[in-house]
Amino acid sequence: MREILGKAKTLRELLSGAKYSIDYYQREYKWGEKHVRELIDDLSARFLEDYRPHHSREKVEDYGHYFLGSIIISRKDGVSYVVDGQQRLTTLTLLLIYLNNLKKEDPELRVASIDELIYSEKYGKKSFNLDVDERAACMEALFEEQPFDANDRPESVQNIIARYEDIMQILPQEITDGALPYFVDWLIQNVHLVEITAYSDEDAYIIFETMNDRGLSLSPTDMLKSYLLANIEDESRRSSANAFWKARILEMNQVGKDVDADCFKTWLRSQYATAIRERKKGAKPQSFDLIGTEFHRWVRDNREDIGLRESLDFARFIERDFDYYSRQYLRLLEASSSPMPGLEHVLYNAQHGFTLQYMLLLAPLSPEDSPEVIDLKLRLVATFLDILLSWRLWNFRSIAYSTMQYAMFLVMRDIRGLDPKPLAVKLRETLDKEEETFATNDRLYMHQQNRWYLHRILARMADYIERQSAQPGRYPEYVSTQGKDRYEVEHIWAYKPERHKDEFSHPIDFEEYRNRIGGLLILPKSFNASYGALPYEEKLPHYNTKNLLARSLHPQCYDRNPGFMRFVEQSGLPFQPHTEFKKADLDARQELLRQLAERIWNPDDLLAEVAE
Q: Domain segments of the chain: what residues?
């Protein structure tokens, strides 16, 4: 083995002026939403432990540091090829691009310059510091905040676009608001990686294999199994428990990577976590935090608190508890990826990226519950979360993991083991304490960070109107990301400020109004391409051929449409046709959608579920 160099670097030192490439045989960027969320949540939590709004910028130098692991580089022919670490480097580049775009929105924040960490320019030609030809076009589009169609593009490109959208949703609002300059300073100066450089592919891969020899290391799941089985004295029962464990872990591994570890964290938190670390400097991790980082050690250290005293307790823990909660967890994962009758709200919450829902859903469950009671409890908790998340999004509040974690821990602890009726009452009481509902914001509008969420809200509205009008609901169709004719958020007003000078003296005022939810629809992508720029009066006949949310603008929707008219009459919602679409029409539509939201996300539904 030739010379090996290892050097700890800050993010600024690593990326400033550097160029990294990726060999063709390991090009794919494969990180999913879960991996990006874990990285962003870890970075955000570490930063927010020290950040205080009254601090000066210089104080950031004293904030705690964060180690992001190592990357392995093979240096050949003057080019640095990433052998291990491209997933992190790609994600960090996407985060930097997003932070740079936020910086451009408000120059007065005086955010540190980070352009040179993203790209360099030579002879007028821009190239990204993580330089991969097939990604250049999509990275350029993200950097310039331009739309980019990732359909039919390579896997890495599709994942890059999807993960950038995830970052937009996940980064906490506490950071994107006033803390942005501080966070950028901390990220580029206090986050470190070790760059290990070899001078041949062979040496680089020897290092990689040595550092990642998975064949010799035990996972937390393996260590938990060893501990539990070692405490079962009956050899026959130990053998049976081992066979069951292996079969269930295999089943979870077939669902996805890390599903077993996620299941244990979720289950143990839902049933046993009693405290969570306070968000202040020097606070110690509590049971909630320890389960999330080392659940196998936590079980061993807290065996008596969770009822593991005798051999039979350890057997029961595997044969009954692990069997029951892992089955429910796998079922919830299935419900989060495709519609499951009675558990549709699990899917809705999952599509908002709200992974905290699983521990809340498991919290009230007990192995003694009948299948009917299990479904009722799951439905109550999922409906509660659906309402809470929709209220927050309607009021421009973050639903990021780091923002919601503490509040959701408290709810989880309060509903643990409750029967359906007290569960419904407790969840309703929790919603009653919320200060922001649909009524507290009559100016919901679309901006860069909530476009994804508003798409789903509008899809729910279109689906609800159709089902209430005795037509098939089409929610899966409205939110699908596949196909060239997938649905997108469409403005009723084309971006033509000159057409509206009689009501808006300045284009900025027009743009703000145009983006309000009352001026939005969801329509196939091809519709916008064909008709998007037309005046409203010319688009109106075409709206009459689309979903009922769009059709309700046209007078013919109210003629010979008995299902829809019955729904309008019974609901009392202020539907009305609009032969023209002026400012007053948009205001009326805004109020209609607000009232429609109150009907779809109604807290009274919780108590109705358990009414005798």
A: 5-211, 220-439, 451-604
